[in-house]
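Researcher: Here's a chain I'd like modeled. Treat it as a single chain, no partners, no ligands.
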Amino acid sequence: MSYTAALREAEQLIARSSSWTGMTAEAVARMRLQNRFPTGLDIARYTAPIMRRDMAAYDRDPALYTQSLGCWHGFIAQQKVISIKKHFGTTERRYLYLSGWMVAALRSQFGPLPDQSMHEKTSVPALVAELYTFLRQADARELGALFREIDAARAAGDLARERQLIHAVDTHQTHVVPIIADIDAGFGNAEATYLLAKKMIEAGACALQIENQVSDEKQCGHQDGKVTIPHEEFIAKIRACRYAFLELGIDDGIIVARTDSLGAGLTKQIAYSATPGDIGDQYNSFLDCEDMTGRPVESGEVLITQGGRLMRPRRLRSNLFQFREGTGADRCVLDCIHALDNGADLLWIETEKPHIAQIAGMMDRIRAVRPEAKLVYNNSPSFNWTLNFRQQVFDVWQAEGRDLTGINRAQLMSEQYDETPLGREADDRIRAFQREASARAGIFHHLITLPTYHTAALSTDRLARDYFGAEGMLGYVAQVQKTEIRQGIACVKHQAMAGSDIGDDHKDYFAGEAALKAGGAHNTMNQFAA
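Model: Modeled as a single isolated chain. Structure tokens:
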């Protein structure tokens, strides 16, 4: 709604009641414009079509891939989007990612936990709501500054400037962007998945990422010991998420189906199979089995048939069954095709390294069956990107017959290679990874799951080293405040960022001339006015 339309509507509303004394239509209009999304469902209805349009744009041109960074606090999300708008002028094709890993590590009442679905599941929708609370506050703050400038232009009689500022309000781009939210393995059965999905959607999530691990055996995607579930059980959870979207009126909600099969060598149960070649038989075909045809069978044995032969799947002491080695990629391909056939919109293949040829090899097979298949890919901090890409360059150069005398492949992380041709080539390949992987391997969305977990630790380490060391207060000033000022970081005015100016505006609305405001001459934030 335009500024003028909002003002006109507020004027008509206030005119209906003679008892609403001291209230102004302009204040009402401004407060409404500053709160464009009253509920999480309003946010999901707004953001889901954005992702759908971006998916269609990527299908037309793979250069139009999307990106996000993981968030573990509303303030982090807010500062990311403020920075995106500052540096690029638009939030187009840029989202946020809510990482279950970071919820477990940073937001659980149990304290830091590994990524094993042991944290409170209510903390996930609570964080979705928190992220959007901070993004909405960023809208209110930015619009509030424009409203103040409008008042100043009016007071100066500058009508041209006033019209320019009103146009800026009318064309204001919200900080509210899509969030891809991690629902882990659903925190239970399909009904539990459905209930949690509803809470996450009601909080504002338009995209849910669900994985095919066993919920109570859930493991981080980049650690060992992963256990998958049969396709039919995973499809039931995908269907549960879709029902949650449809029940809440988010008809274009997005489901990201993640397969961990590449690194998962175990299954907790053997799939039910009614006929040879059905979905259960396909899952079971990868089991590591021993031929029991014509051999005595002991009580308690678990047996299946494969190709007319009686087979005993190898069962571990943990009561888990193992897959044959080397079948991970085949299982990933099958997982993805079944997920797309049963309601998923996007895929996620968890890999052990960032290798375009590996990803593309699986995606080529998937796209041979489902040409529209698109990936969400984890550009994970669990990968040693420098070492991986230096080794990739080493292998390519070795295959080309280049002289690699004196270069130790196992020690390529060493600083001695930083300014070498090999080190620079690896950096160039890392720089181009997202662009080239999107063009070659069908990656629609690139995300880093837990970047600010690492940036917070790194910046805190540097500050602690200098502040508690010889630099003293200069350790803070040089590293933080001076840099904030020089780079125009809005957060240097931390009182305003926390909502002080918005509060002053409300005091004006509520109390008029009697308002006791914080932004007077003695507010030290005035030292940062320039």
